[in-house]
């Protein structure tokens, strides 16, 4: 899969024991896997996380 997602709003990810990760509007992520309710995406640094499909056109857009 070679889909790309672009943030249209800033996103902050928090995980206990780790510093928060901040992503700004315009950040691009590669879609690694498509699930029924979310996409697994990867940053350029190799970090992976999910984006809820309900936030499409609110927080992110698929390019």
Report on the architecture of this protein.
The protein is mostly beta strands. It has a single domain, classed as SH3 type barrels, CATH 2.30.30. The protein contains no helices and seven strands. The strands form two sheets. It has a five-stranded antiparallel sheet with strand order 6-5-4-1-7, with no helix packed on it.
Structural class by sheet pairing and helices: mainly beta
The main sheet comes to: 5 strands, antiparallel
Which architecture would the CATH scheme give at its second level? Roll
What top-tier CATH class fits best?
Mainly Beta
User: Would you report the number of β strands?
Assistant: 7
Main sheet: strand order: 6-5-4-1-7
Number of domains: 1
Query: Radius of gyration over alpha carbons?
Result: 11 Å
Strand content: over 45%
Number of contiguous helices: 0
Estimate the mean pLDDT confidence: 94
Which parts are unreliable, with pLDDT below 50 for 5 consecutive residues or more?
A: none
- Fraction in helix: under 10%
Give the terminus-to-terminus CA distance: 13 Å
Shape: globular
Instruction: Report the CATH topology name.
Output: SH3 type barrels
The run of helices and strands is: EEEEEEE
